[in-house]
Specification:
Blueprint lengths: L14 E6 L15 H14 L4 E6 L11 E4 L2 H5 L5 E3 L5 H13 L9 H4 L20
Parallel strand pairs: 1-2
Antiparallel strand pairs: 1-3, 3-4
Helix pairs in contact: 1-3
Length: about 140
């Protein structure tokens, strides 16, 4: 078993990969041709070897299910202070895309190093924070 250093509640945070593993991402039902366990293991191995420069966590659902698998790269504390924001990636379904994301994050990620052109193809917009519009009732 690989030990991953937990994120501190306070203090500087490393670049963090947030991996969706909810209803669509990470499921064989929706994406049967993807080895989801191997994908997560690759990221966890990279984090374990990073000497604290990279962290990985999983969440139930990040929202854009039609673009599964979703991985969000959150900037370091220092990069966030300089204005960097999280980068969202979708359709991360193979080892190449997974490794490219991990390598970019290890190099510093958002706000630290430019996004490689290959990752631009996987870039997606985060879901809107606006509440859904209420459905209008129709007269009967």
């Amino acid at each position: 078993m690989t030990w991953i250093r937990p994120l501190a509640a306070h203090g500087p945070r490393p670049c963090t990969l947030v991996v969706c593993r909810g209803c669509c991402c990470g499921t064989l039902r929706k994406l049967p041709g993807t080895d989801h366990a191997a994908q997560l293991a690759r990221l966890q191995t990279a984090a374990a070897a990073s000497e604290g420069r990279l962290a990985v966590r999983t969440v139930d659902c990040l929202g854009p299910c039609e673009q599964a698998n979703i991985i969000v790269v959150q900037p370091t504390t220092e990069a966030r202070r300089r204005g960097a924001r999280a980068a969202w990636f979708g359709w991360v379904l193979d080892g190449t895309a997974t490794d490219d994301i991990a390598e970019w994050a290890l190099a510093g990620g958002p706000g630290t190093v430019p996004l490689p052109p290959a990752l631009e193809l996987h870039r997606v917009d985060p879901p809107s924070d606006r509440p859904e519009k209420k459905r209008r009732r129709t007269a009967r």
